[in-house]
Amino acid sequence: MIQSSNDVEQLYISVTESVLPSENAMRELKNSIGEFESLENRTTILRARQHLKEKKINKLRRDFESTYDEGFDKKFKRKIKERDGYKCLLCGKEDKLCIHHITYNKRITNMDECVALCCGCNSRVNKKDQRGYWQEYFKRLIHYKLNRK
Length: 149
Known about the structure:
Layout: H1 5-17, H2 23-67, H3 74-83, E1 97-101, E2 114-118, H4 119-125, H5 131-148
Helix pairs in contact: 1-2
């Protein structure tokens, strides 16, 4: 069994030193080299994937910490969802709700600047060419909801 590059090298030397290597010896050499290279490649690929995953997680964490206000936490999000009846304000879905910042400024965290939307609607309202429309729409909606009580 080949377990290291030294084993592959030793097998290569033994096969090439014989005057006429047998087909079996050549086949074993090719298979061993292939197995070792694929194992080594898989290990390298897995390590690279893990490294990239860790880098991505760290970047997301840094981006979140530098983008969002300190008050944007689970408690605040729960208050927004509660105010909006645990439903998306556009389509009425009750699952996978996220908090949308009406002014698109994530540093502003107050009740009249955020609404609960499902992920699909949140993606829809974040399109840059329609932000003005949605900003005005949600400001009026929140104003109506807050003054109705």
